[in-house]
Amino acid sequence: MKNDRFLRALARAPVDCTPVWIMRQAGRYLPEYRATRARAGDFLTLCKTPELACEVTLQPLRRFDLDAAILFSDILTIPDAMGLGLSVEEGVGPRLEKPLRSRADIENLAVPDPESDLGYVMEAVRLIRRELDDRVPLIGFAGSPWTLATYMVEGGSSKEFSLIKKIIYDEPETAHLLLSKLAAAVAAYLAAQVAAGAQALMIFDTWGGVLTSRDYENYSLGYMRKIVNALDRDLKEDRPPVILFTKGAGQWLEKIASAGCEAVGLDWTVDLDDARNRIGDRVALQGNMDPNVLYASQGRVRQEVARILKQFGSGRGHVFNLGHGIHPGIDPENVQVLVQAVHEMSIPFHD
Amino acid sequence: MKNDRFLRALARAPVDCTPVWIMRQAGRYLPEYRATRARAGDFLTLCKTPELACEVTLQPLRRFDLDAAILFSDILTIPDAMGLGLSVEEGVGPRLEKPLRSRADIENLAVPDPESDLGYVMEAVRLIRRELDDRVPLIGFAGSPWTLATYMVEGGSSKEFSLIKKIIYDEPETAHLLLSKLAAAVAAYLAAQVAAGAQALMIFDTWGGVLTSRDYENYSLGYMRKIVNALDRDLKEDRPPVILFTKGAGQWLEKIASAGCEAVGLDWTVDLDDARNRIGDRVALQGNMDPNVLYASQGRVRQEVARILKQFGSGRGHVFNLGHGIHPGIDPENVQVLVQAVHEMSIPFHD
């Protein structure tokens, strides 16, 4: 590996400077991404055509000195493979044509076979690894079972999550049946991504933060833990580092850090020094700049990078990132400034 | 006062059972509210017609054994009085016709005079107090300066808050100018509500939780503290108890409790026992049932009430409430079950 800073930071090994990548780095803020997407016709075709998914995965690496690539895909490929009929319209968000409406719908769900049902993802991973040629590591990913369940029951994005919450409050066993199937599906999907070449894994729990503390443990974190355990069992010493990221989980960082993962993703509401004090050196920390800072001036971006590096302080185990995906309206020039600032200004914090 | 449980709980005095009221208790889940609103024609007319605002304020008290009334109004009456042109469309949410687009727009803002510019609110407060005839106390309220600022800059509800955040990151002085004017406006507005008859006050900081920890202190909590201080100075011993509520502020409870208020409102992501351990007995706690529990069965509602009462445990200073406003789709029958369950099941927790 020519640049293994990212993997070293996840292992809390020494690095020359803090590694950085950006959630949704292959995305709409890049004109070349918009051009490829226009060529594909729509978002899902882009996801399902390995050559195009590979192309957009690599685009940000050509512009910026990023320390990791992340597979271009969508967390809803699994519900799609389970037969729920995914469509993604720009500005509207994802829609599932056949949301889960009954216990029978959930009983009838089959766990997809990653190679036969999601072969386009595995093919993209293989292609990206070939093209990357070990310049930087490739991150594979999936949505958390809870987050996938919210979309599968609500039929799309939600504000109040009333349908899925009615299930957890009134039919907890039905919720557990769905989440168990999703945990099995996600574990198999991530293991297949590793077999295809993914060198680190991230689980995105976008909606764990809408749960009560107890339900977060029961319905979200518990299933992420099961996935990590399944990967340990199935991949043994080949199990790559896993990053768990729940948005809005500032209250529960200690619990997440104890779930068997190598790193915890932090949104921007969390103070990095506070997080480090609470978690200690058990795991690495990834994050946590407010994506909105990238709307500000270059001077302000640098100032915020400095603040976050200082908050983490000296020592091992920090991967710089935003606290959430980059917004489509951001000027790529500011991403350039961010990446350069992280590399330059972090040197004094390392031996 | 015939029933002063709510005020006693805020003062951490002994009560016979735990008082309960419900955020947005005068709202669309009640058929009689929908009828009055239909009669008014639209939401804003309902707010601006004291007789109708009084009527809907009292409606939930006729059905349920609630321990407090809350003025029917909207947090955006202040931006409206500042000339931004409020409209509220059902299902779309609030819109401000003339959002703030420049430093000059902010410099030109005048702090409204509550009696002349927001007289319909003061008239509603006086009318409600007359009609309530001291059965239960009346809560007055306002939005926090930060929350008002987000609407005034974004022009309505927002997902990413990019415009207001660009201001705090690039022009912090401009943000402070706006927030200072809003703090003065809110303090005067709340003082006028007290003069008109409000017996407790609540400040709703719906969007403080989208800030970083440091910016929450600088741009949201700091201005709520200024308001409490202004009320102390202006009202002296007549200053009624103040409840501060920031959604998504589980990480910052200790800071909020130290802001000079008598009570902290808690959303449903917070564990009440954990909150009490962290805050101690400095202030009362209000909350914190997930509003979605009201979609579940009556048995499940009672179970959740029991869990929350047990989490708070014995002792003084708990006001039962939801962790956010009640949803329009809730069956009023379940509210009946909730209110009765709180009163009955809380008796063993009091002397």
Model description:
The structure is a homodimer of 351-residue chains. With 351 residues, chain A is an alpha/beta fold. Chain A has a single domain (5-349), classed as TIM Barrel. Chain A has 16 helices and nine strands. Chain A has helices at 5-10, 31-40, 43-48, 50-63, 77-84, 103-107, 114-117, 119-132, 145-154, 162-170, 172-196, 213-235, 253-257, 272-279, 298-312, 332-345; strands at 69-70, 86-89, 93-96, 138-143, 200-205, 242-246, 263-265, 284-289, 318-322. Chain A has a seven-stranded parallel β-sheet. In chain A, strands 2-3 form a two-stranded antiparallel ribbon. In chain A, strand 2 (86-89) and strand 3 form a beta hairpin. In chain A, helix 10 (162-170) crosses helix 11 (172-196). The two termini of chain A are 21 Å apart.
Mean pLDDT of chain A: 97
**Under the CATH scheme, which class of chain A?**
Alpha Beta
Instruction: Give the CA-CA distance, first to last residue of chain A.
Output: 21 Å
> Which class do the helix and strand fractions of chain A yield?
alpha/beta
Q: What's the Cα radius of gyration of chain A?
A: 19 Å
Low-confidence stretches of chain A: none
Oligomeric state of shown chains? homodimer
**Helix count, DSSP H or I runs of 4 or more residues of chain A:** 16
> How many structural domains can be distinguished in the coordinates of chain A?
1
**Remind me, CATH topology of chain A?**
TIM Barrel
Largest sheet of chain A: 7 strands, parallel
Strand content bin of chain A: 5-15%
Biggest sheet strand order of chain A reads 1-4-5-6-7-8-9
| H/E series of chain A | HHHHEHEEHHHEHHHEHEHEHEHEH
Biggest interface goes to: A-B, 33 and 33 residues
Query: Which percent bin holds the helix content of chain A?
Result: 40-55%
What is the overall silhouette of chain A? globular
What is the level-2 CATH architecture name of chain A? Alpha-Beta Barrel
Topology, number of strands of chain A: 9
